[in-house]
Structure formats: structure tokens, C-alpha cells
Specification:
Layout (H helix, E strand, L loop, with lengths): L2 E5 L5 H11 L4 H6 L7 H17 L3 E8 L5 E10 L15 H22 L4 E9 L8 H16 L3 E4 L5 H6 L3 E2 L4 E3 L11 E3 L1 E4 L19 E2 L2 E2 L29
Parallel strand pairs: 4-5
Antiparallel strand pairs: 1-2, 2-3, 3-4, 5-9, 6-9, 7-8, 10-11
GO molecular function: acyltransferase activity, transferring groups other than amino-acyl groups
Protein name: N-acetyltransferase domain-containing protein
Pfam families: Acetyltransf_1
Length: about 260
Amino acid sequence: MGFIVLPALIPDIASVYDVYFTAFKDSPILSALFPMGVDSGEFRDAHTAHTRSYWEKSSTQYTLKCVDSETGGIVGMALWDVYVTPSDWKKGEVDWLSGKEKERAEKLLFPLWDMREKLWDGKRYVYCHVIATHPQYQRRGIGSLLTQAGIQIAQQSQLPIYLESTKSGQPLYAKLGFKLLKETIVHEKGALGEGSEEERVPLMVWEPGSLSTGLEFVGEGTEIGEVGGKFDKMKLQDNSQEVINARKDSTQEDDGLLSN
């Protein structure tokens, strides 16, 4: 018995997002996006309804589930946008929040959205929003399975994949053939929560075969944090509930990956 990756269906929405909300519980990004919490039945019902409405309208977004073949339970999820024709995606608005809560979320999201639009507007590509594994199933290869499923889509369509990694997730992505862009994003001090330090976001791209995106990558043998000639050693995180909810080092597989 093992795990299998399948397309998520409408009846799966609540279970898929049970995994997401559990995997990223207490993470600074989740608390910024949903400052009122995600545990109430009212919130979850509204979120499920909104997600279903979006699924019925979107022509680019695909949600995958990872199922435990012994129990039938959903233990992992991944969210991908596939642009087989040139993307017309544009930066959105944080219109579900207001005041200081909105400002905090914008500090996190806008740099990510601005970079995505800068690099990929009008281009064909695959974008990975998020990969998440239920904490009880981490370190069992589920994150890798979900990433490989996205790679298979990209191989079949001959499209590059773009994602914003966590520092702890970077070694797994590199193992699967992703390369680190010289372009980078820096979250300013306090953006990830009160007292948080400045933090770089590794931007990674997977290219199929001989296809070249024309983007500039950090050269082989370059330190993880050396981008654009500036050396900034990136420490691997050691907090199982921070952003990725899994402590890993460069030799371990990261099953709680987060892309935004």
C-alpha cells in the first residue's frame, strides 16, 4: 500500500483544505491572510463555497490530492496554474481585509505578485501556488510525489515551472531539477510577524529538456544565498511550525512545502 496523486474533485474541497490549514497552522503567512482564524465552521463553510465557485470558473487552476491508498484519506494537496496559452494573470487585491490587517498581508503578497507578473506576464508556464502534506504524514515522500506530478504536466506541455520556495524546501526542489533564479524577493523586517528578521525568498524554475526561458540562474557551486553577487548565507529553518511545518536539512525531503 502507498500513496497516489489524483485530481481533486468538488466533494474533496473540504478535505483538501483540511490538509492545507493543518499543515500551515500558526504560520506567519496563514495568520496574515486569515487573521481571524481558520477553525470556525462558519469560515470553513464560506471558504469551501468560495473555492467551489472559483473551480467552476477557472480555466487554468488545477488542484491535486494525494490519497493514502490504504485508508482512502487525503493526506496531501498541491495547487497549480497551467498556462498552455500566454498568461494574462495580473496582480490582484487583498479585498477581504482592511486597515492594518490588509497592510500586513499586502507586505507579504505584493512583492511575490509583482515579481510573478514581471517575469511571466504574457508567457506560457506552470505556476505552483502551494504543496502541503498533513503533519502526520510528513517525511514519507508525499511532497516529492506532488511536485513530480506537476513536473509531469510541465513535461507533457513543454512548459517551465515557476515557484516561490521556502529555504527549507529549496534542497528538495533542487534535487528534482529546479534552478535558483538570480532574481530574488526580500521580506522586510517584521513582514513575517512581530520581531521577524529580513528574509529572502528563493525563486526557482524547472525547465523541460532543452527549453530555455532566458532567465538568469545562480551558477553551479554558488552558495544558497548568493544572488546577484551579494552573499547572504541562508540558514535552514529549525521550526516545525514555521511556514512549512517541517524541519529538514539539505539531505532530507521536505513534505510541508509552501509556495505562494
